[in-house]
Design brief:
Number of strands: 5
Order of helices and strands: HEHHEHEEHEH
Radius of gyration: 22 Å
Structural class: alpha/beta
Low-confidence stretches: none
Shape: flat
Strand order of the largest sheet: 1-2-5
Helix content: 25-40%
Length: 132
């Protein structure tokens, strides 16, 4: 089924109406601080991560879960000249961040641009060890 066919099916479906009632006196479920979090990409630039005003505001929010992610993270945290991860820069970013000590989810969404790709645009198997 082509993309246009799928769009046509979705647009032809009738909407569904729902009635929602909120009863603030009756507990239905409990949540935890991990239900809500925040993304952070300032950590990828240690100078920005170290900004005391930024860190103060972040601490005041009391966010218990931080997702470190950025589309260019691999390029920001690696050195194309040496073709290695820049461990000093990564450590500096983490050392400067999160005085409130949240739980951190680290997402490395892709490999650095300098890593070799196969014919299909995927990471070449010869780069697997260097990527990890």
């Amino acid at each position: 089924m082509g993309e246009n066919s799928y769009s046509a099916i979705l647009s032809s479906q009738a909407s569904i109406a729902s009635k929602v009632i909120v009863d603030w006196e009756t507990e239905q479920a409990k949540t935890t601080p991990f239900t809500f979090g925040s993304n952070d990409y300032e950590i990828t630039i240690p100078e920005k991560a170290a900004d005391p005003v930024y860190q103060s505001h972040l601490a005041k929010l009391g966010i218990g879960l931080i997702r470190v992610c950025h589309a260019g993270l691999s390029d920001r945290w690696s050195d194309p000249a040496t073709k290695t991860w820049d461990k000093t820069k990564i450590k500096a970013g983490y050392d400067a961040s999160y005085p409130q000590r949240p739980t951190i989810i680290q997402n490395i969404s892709g490999w650095p641009q300098w890593m070799k790709q196969d014919g299909d645009g995927l990471l070449d198997p010869s780069e697997y060890d260097r990527y990890y």
